[in-house]
Amino acid sequence: MERSPGAPSRMTAQTQTANRRQDGSEGQREIIAVAQKLFTTIGYRKTTVADIAAELGMSPANVYRFFDSKKSINEAVAELLLDGIVAELGAIATSPAPPSTRLADFMRELARLSDERFMTNSRVNDMVEDAMTESWSVCVRYAENVQSMIARIVEDGQVSGDFNIDDSLVFAACVKATMTCFMHPTMMALSTGLGRPDIEQVIAFTLRGLGYQPAD
């Protein structure tokens, strides 16, 4: 039987794809990218591992070579999203601006990014909320990253004299706790209709609590 003219090129493409996927990191990146697309379009709860596999042109068993469950895929997608927020906040935390300006900008941007990434797309909200509920470590790592950046700003303010406080780590933890309703999807949704102050009011309250005295 004659081989069709297109067969060699198809085999070549399949071989190249298989070779790429032998590299675990490459295979994981491909799965995460497709999962993120499906989670944000049809929803995390409706997406199956079979859907992800079909989109990639592989079997579900091959997906399980890289991730042991759908939950672990969602965890990786959520971490990617949260790491993006952390990266943007990190640029503010390490900027040369005065500590009071940095802290205000940091809190403002955290609130904005959380609203933009979590609340404007209900499917993304479900994905992150489920990841934080099912995989507490995802929530803990994100909160720890946010708190460590706040701590850096607060410590700088303590050293410069902008903030009149005794324990920078305790105050950094207090600031992070104050921001919970602006950074956790569930708390953001629940607090919206319960008289939650706006972010500018929270910033002003926080700076007063840190003993900041603006120049006249």
Draw up the topology in text.
Elements: H1 7-21, H2 24-41, H3 49-56, H4 60-66, H5 70-93, H6 99-119, H7 122-134, H8 136-160, H9 168-178, H10 185-192, H11 199-209
Helix pairs in contact: 2-3, 2-5, 5-6, 5-7, 5-8, 6-8, 6-11, 7-8, 8-9
Region (Disordered): 1-27
Protein name: TetR family transcriptional regulator
Pfam family, one: TetR_C_27
Distance between the termini: 90 Å
Q: Please tell me the total number of domains.
A: 2
Helix content bin: over 70%
Sequence of secondary-structure elements = HHHHHHHHHHH
* Principal-axes shape call: elongated
Number of helices: 11
CATH class of the largest domain: Mainly Alpha
Strand content: under 5%
Which superfamily, in CATH terms, is the homologous superfamily of the largest domain?
A: Tetracycline Repressor, domain 2
Region (Disordered): 1-27
Domain HTH tetR-type: 25-85
Pfam families: TetR_C_27, TetR_N
GO molecular function: DNA-binding transcription factor activity; transcription cis-regulatory region binding
Task: Please describe what this structure looks like.
- There is one protein chain.
- This protein is an all-alpha fold and 216 residues long.
- It has two domains: 8-68, Orthogonal Bundle (Arc Repressor Mutant, subunit A); 72-209, Orthogonal Bundle (Tetracycline Repressor, domain 2), CATH 1.10.357.
- 75% of the residues lie in helices and 0% in strands.
- The chain has helices at 7-21, 24-41, 49-56, 60-66, 70-93, 99-119, 122-134, 136-160, 168-178, 185-192, 199-209.
- Helix 2 packs across helix 5.
- The termini are far apart.
- Residues 25-85 form the HTH tetR-type domain.
- It holds the Pfam family TetR_N.
- One of its GO terms (molecular function) is DNA-binding transcription factor activity.
